[in-house]
Amino acid sequence: MNQFLPPLADTLYDIAIIGAGITGCAAAFELSKTGARIALIDRDGDVAAGATRANSGIVHAGYDPLPGTKMARYNVEGNALIHHYAGELNLPFRETGSLVLALADGDIAVLQELYRRGLDNGVPGLRLLSAGQARTLEPSLSPEVQGALYAPSAGVVGPWEMALAFAQTAVVNGADFLPCCEVTGIRRDGDGFLLSTTRGKLRARRVVNATGAHADTVNDLAAPSRLRIRPNKGQYYLLDKSQGNLVHTVIFQCPSAAGKGVLVAPTAHGNLIVGPDAQDVPDPDDTSTTADGLAFVAEQVHRSIPGLSLRDSIRNFAGVRAVCEEEDFVIEESAACPGLITLGGIKSPGLTSAPAIAKACVELLKKSGLPLEPRKDFRLYPLPVRFRDLSPEGRAAMARKNPLYGRIICRCETITEGEIVDAVHSPIPARSVDGVKRRAGAGMGRCQGGFCSPRVAAILAREWNVPLTEIEQDHPGSRLLMGWTKDPGRA
Amino acid sequence: MKSKKNTTGLPTLHAGIVVIGGGPAGLAAALEAKKAGAPSVLVLERDTAAGGILNQCIHNGFGLHYFQEELTGPEYAGRFLHMVRETPGIEIKTDTMVLDVASLPAGEETRVRVQGVNPTEGYFQVDAGAAVLAMGCRERTRGAIGIPGTRPAGVYTAGCAQRYINIEGAMPGRRAVILGSGDIGLIMARRLTLEGAQVLACLELMPYSSGLQRNITQCLEDFGIPLYLSHTIIDIRGRERVEQVVAARVDENRRPIPGTEMVFDCDTVLLSVGLIPENELSRAAGAAIDPRTSGPLVDESMQTSLPGVFACGNVVHVHDLVDFVTMESGRAGRAAARYLARGATDGGTEPPAVPLYNGDNVTYTVPQRVHPGRLEKACEVFFRVNRVMEGAEILVTSGDAILLRKTRPHLAPGEMERLILPAALFDRAPEGLRISACPAEQGEQGE
Predict the structure, then answer these.
(1) CB contact under 8 A, B174 and A414
(2) Contact, A56 vs A276, CB < 8 A?
(3) Inter-chain contact B240–A477, Cβ cutoff 8 Å?
């Protein structure tokens, strides 16, 4: 599929954002409110292809980061912004509230410390609960629970949908999304930069590095930097929607010397998520799951919810955290290379903080001397309304509008052909089967695309007008098929 | 057409019996329901053609019991489609997905209200006097069994790969390892080989295959494909596409044994690790589900816990042979027609149903309960065992009393067993019957 992408035109951009994860997409969104000419670049074929699609999907309340840090500030600000954007951009978002459980001696003191931090950070509505109060809220909690910290402003969001809504809004406001475009060199060029990529060269006045676990190596392309990423992998179980009501809030374990604990939460999509563990890995792209990691998660979760059964698991996955030497986010203009803005070390609560980090990025760019004026014709591009979320009458109206909304392709998630076709023709088009999954939800369910992926692949082939055998699962090169059964060239 | 209460304002169709699913189960149920006098039968099928999964099962071996002939899947489905077409009063709507099934209170003429959608008619509802659930089953996935490793392209359920090859004419891969020795996996080992791909191994977690012996012979042994029992995949490698699979032998607790690893260079992994009845609609409608079958609890007539709602085929329990699906579904269709004819006057003074219990080594029975008064002569019971037994006895007991004893040369979890219980047996066991299986010599001692 990606061989059909043209080489880059010789465009001078005001800002090149490298990395189309949640941080880069939020930055593009915020910057597209100005008149700046923006390129949002990613080495992968889609937005949200890295850690953004492999994390807990939690909108943290903000009691965890140390007061006075960037993390504390952007977390609380980002939480409020996501509440706001959820309506404007039709994000899958639920304000579920969260509980941190005290499960061992000494945990109560930690909860009290988190409570104080939360007050300092400006987290609204925090309450310390007795064990009984916590169990009234969540009846399936372990009898070992001694108390809990309740944060009503926490929630869950669809991370890749949020990235997509930000990036698509940027694109309809004039930004260019350049997929399959790995940056291999960053060189000073006059008062701007010349970027070498796998799709050719592009020039930009400013560069924003939002490359997550790769932020150190990308910084180093421009100039040696102090940022050092220590990739850290976390593994998860995703459970069937039949288990989505086992808990109603995000349930954390009290952080301790042994780690941040394993969480259980409903997802914005209605599943149940369990994880993660934490394991340092040398390769920032190592998203493999391991038997040990999954076993650890399975064992630890029972400390919180003893009755949880992983029998209804529909998927395991792993994501890589961009942990850095600093305890805080690294959000700065490079001293060694003025004009290069680093959005680095964006580990948890990075997803929550992204909208606030994006605003900080705009300020840094302004400070660097780039004139950024608000544009008057800015418009939002909300995510589409889902057929399955409508009343019978609403569904009937949708199917009348276009017969393709009357054909269900993904039976587990009730996704129509019309929605899949829309995903292929959206401002950032779905190029792969998983691209359709991230936009329309097809293949997210209990059969994991067993039934619908051949049909989704056929729709992609039809809409892109390419042979079925060109269709990819996800990343560039992840071909689904290896030719035809009756290839003339084969014996 | 009588006007009916329509609370939703949706276009409403009316049918005597609505059948959900137009695969082998739904077609047989529709046919037998109509033959038994149902005024009208409407079959709703989600695919673009009726016939269900048979349409992609182009191998032979279907129909030996029912037609006494060896047919391919499409031929078997074709016979039923032909019979349905020859039978006035059965309508099939294809490309139609059912999104809701509701069982209405007793006393209403409409007992079941179904919501569905298709591209030509849009979103509509069907009011019916009875329903037959025949949605079939789905395949267990990688996520359900938690295979560690990377998540590249090239990991398919066997049925998905079968669709690519047999319907789309495309090759899912060239060098494959198959995990699980279920029948679809075995069939696909042969299919891939015939299309020029290499099948390096078939791995089975259990010490025995869950597939039919004839498939092990015809699909693996005849092609020299090794079957590794007590083995599983412990790692999948490759970033974009599968590049390697690491397999290992497992101990009696199904844990991988260090030092027994084997590495296969391959581009494809096929999973044939079990089938799960698709009962999201049944659950939402409120039908009681048997956790052992993952299907609705049914009685001798395949009626679920919801009056007027029947179920048959793989939505109730996973069958090995379509012939038995057909026979079971015919029973469901006839019972639905009888239910419709009796109307809302059904019930009343009949004695309660007799439960069937799972005894030693028996994992489930279908039906799970029997109304003795409604049996004509006998009750057909399907069951499975949890271990391989050479020379086995099947015992039907009530308390300490052995009411029936049958011998079988061979019992295995991969082979569904069938037992005919005479109606008279139930009169001797109002408290319930227990079905057990044991190796023959153990049975002798038990006497």
Answers:
(1) no
(2) yes
(3) yes
User: Amino acid identity of A249?
Assistant: T
- How far apart CA B344 and CA B26 sit, in angstroms, is 24
Does any CB of chain A come closer than 8 Å to the CB of residue B149?
Answer: yes
Q: Each residue of A415-448: pLDDT tens digit? A: 999 999 999 999 999 999 999 999 999 999 999 9
- Rounded to a whole number of angstroms, the distance from the CA of A403 to the nearest CA of chain B is 4
Residue of A nearest to B117 (CA): A406
For the record, the structure tokens of B391 come out as 């020379």
| Same fold: B12-138+276-346 with B141-273 | yes
Domain ranges within chain B, ordered by starting residue: 12-138+276-346, 141-273, 356-445
Domain A94-152+230-321 has CATH 3.30.9.10: yes
State residue B105's pLDDT score: 86
Query: Alpha-carbon distance B174 to B195, whole Å?
Result: 9
Indicate the CATH number for domain B356-445.
Answer: 2.60.40
- The tally of CA atoms less than 13 A away on the side-chain side of residue B408 is 20
ipTM of the modeled complex? 0.95
Give the tokens for residue A277.
């563990």
3-state secondary structure chain B: CCCCCCCCCCCEEEEEEEEECCCHHHHHHHHHHHHCCCCCEEEECCCCCCCHHHHHCCCEEECCCCCCCCEEHHHHHHHHHHHHHCCCCEEEECCCEEEEEEECCCCCCCCEEEEEEECCCEEEEEEEEEEEECCCEEECCHHHHCCCECCCECEEEHHHHHHHHHHHCECCCCEEEEECCCHHHHHHHHHHHHCCCEEEEEEECCCCCCCCHHHHHHHHHHHCCCEEECEEEEEEECCCECCEEEEEEECCCCCECCCCCEEEECCEEEECCCEEECCHHHHHHCCCEECCCCEECCCCCCECCCCCEEECHHHCCCCCCHHHHHHHHHHHHHHHHHHHHHHHHCCCCCCCCEEEEECCCEEEEECCEECHHHCCCEEEEEEEECCCEEEEEEEEEECCEEEEEEEEEEECCCCCEEEEEEHHHHHCCCCCEEEEEEEHHHHHHCC
Digit-coded pLDDT (tens) for B392-404 = 999 999 999 999 9
**pTM (two decimals):** 0.95
A366 near A373, Cβ under 8 Å? no
B25 CB contacts (<8 Å, ≥6 apart)? B52, B134, B136, B312, B313, B314, B315, B325, B326, B328, B329, B332
Instruction: Please tell me which of the candidates B117, B125, B169 has its beta carbon nearest to residue A408.
Output: B117
Which CATH number is B141-273's, of 1.10.260.40, 2.60.120.380, 3.50.50.60, 1.10.10.10? 3.50.50.60
Q: Chunked in runs of 10, what are the mean pLDDT values of chain B (447 residues)?
A: 54 97 98 97 97 97 96 98 96 98 85 97 97 97 95 97 97 97 95 97 95 93 98 98 98 97 98 96 97 97 96 97 97 96 65 92 97 91 94 94 94 92 90 93 47
B256 and A315 in contact by Cβ < 8 A? Answer: no
Q: Which CATH architecture has domain A387-470?
A: Orthogonal Bundle (1.10)
> Could you tell me the residue ranges of all domains in chain A?
94-152+230-321, 387-470
SS3 A482: coil
Interface of B with A in 304-343 (CB under 8 A): none
Whether A60 is a known active-site residue: answer: yes
The listed CATH number (3.10.25.10, 3.60.21.10, 3.50.50.60, 3.90.1150.10) that belongs to domain B12-138+276-346 = 3.50.50.60
B159 shares contact with chain A (CB less than 8 Å): yes
CA–CA separation, A246 and A266 (whole Å): 8
